[in-house]
Amino acid sequence: MGFRPQRRMPDEDESGVRLPSIGVEVLPLWVTCVDVGKFLPMKLVFIAALILLTFRLVLGFKNRGRLPPGPRGLPILGNALQLASVSQIWLIFDKWKSQYGPIMYLNLAGQHIVVLNTKAAAIELLERRSAIYSDRPKSIVGEYVGTALTMPFVRYDKRWQRMRRAAHAVLNVRASAQYQPVQIEEAVIFAHKLLYDTSSPLSTKIARSASTMISTHYRLLQTLCIHSPTLWLQWKRNAKRTFQQTTNLYENYYNTTVNHNNQQPNLCVSLAENEVAGELTAVEKVWVTGAISAASLDTTTVTISYFLYAMSIYPNVQARAQRELDEVVGRSRMPTFDDMTQLPYIKAIVKEVLRWQPVTPLAVPHAAMEDDWYEGYLIPKGTIIFPNVWSMNRDQETYGPDADQFSPERFVQKSETGDAFVLRPEFENNDGHYTYGFGRRICVGRYVAENSLFITACTILWALHIEPKANATPNLEEKHREAQDILNSTPDFDCHFSPRFPEVERILQDTGLAA
Q1: How confident is the model at residue 151 (pLDDT cuts 50, 70, 90)?
Q2: How many domains in the chain?
Q3: Which residues are annotated as a binding site?
Q4: Which CATH number does the domain housing residue 396 bear?
Q5: Residue range(s) defining the domain that contains residue 195
Q6: Mean pLDDT score of the chain, rounded to an integer?
């Protein structure tokens, strides 16, 4: 089944981007009634609303026996109140998994929600049936402020096809190799900052090393998670301004990078020069670069934070990785990508961090484009589908009884000679986790991200010894409960970094100057 273009929006701003009209068909029932009330006596409105509500409830009861199992909710509100006070809903979904099984149904004030708790369900629906599960949920407010152009959130239409094809052209396995020299340079600079910048908190150093766009992207994320806007009028007044400000930010980022290129490969230059990217409009092109750069920020910030945290509290893992580096790389030079195939334990560490603490524990939601059936259960058209990555990444049948723990050993085994590690055969060409998503919506930048995480981990472990500072180890379960973002929270901790051997400082300095 091919792409299904969405209905064109009637409003269009000066940049050529179409914005959604506020038609009756896209508003929840109670908002619809308010609009109709301008033209009908309130008594008739009340009667009409009551009839529609009764019809919806009767239809809901009729279909309830065919829907997947899930927690019982209230009339009209469904399960909304059960989730209203939960900061990280993936934790309660993980708890409910044992009661309701691999596929779970929720009703949020009339909106169908299906949570996929197992890889089997996710692969069947989001990959094998990707033709009808590759759409994104409609977000009225979000489309006004940028989801219509933020590639991970773009609806499954011709625009998404153009943007995805262009991004793939400059981020695929082969293309990702061109960014490796820059990634090595950034890893060296980061290691240098960890060692010598003693005035900044660790979290600040990590964020600065990832991107200076961090604050803007987090504001955007808070906007994008709004599905049904109850405060619509307040948002509408500022929506076009917010969208234009974000477009200007991304455009400035894109133009500055292209115009001041120092001959090093980067995403902006690649898109500017790539023939496939020529299909994009000017606005689409700057949003592709901005959104991908912002998404890579989240992956880098969260994953590197948990990598450093894990190395500080698991000194045996740190020591084992450093032994592998000493045997393969030695101490006279820094690691490069040429060493990757000989460093399976480092690769296992990267896989394990991404599995243990995924950046988006529920992934970006999909949407069903038509009615479908799975294991005898109805999934109605328009249902929002949440892949429960947190539960999949901690499935004991796949990862063993210690799936909640950090253990890179789950991905490796002893070599035939018994003196080194090799990746287990099932993980040689497998991510070993589900953090990058599924199907046609799988993370387009995963190869670049994987390379960046690998060389950063190699460089830090080769150069530095990592120790936790006194009273600086967080309670991760409490951190998860406190977090208020749609992303996994970063651990609030601090480390002490010291050179592993005397030559480190000189080699760091020489390599940094050469880069």
Answers
A1: confident
A2: 1
A3: 443
A4: 1.10.630.10
A5: 65-514
A6: 80
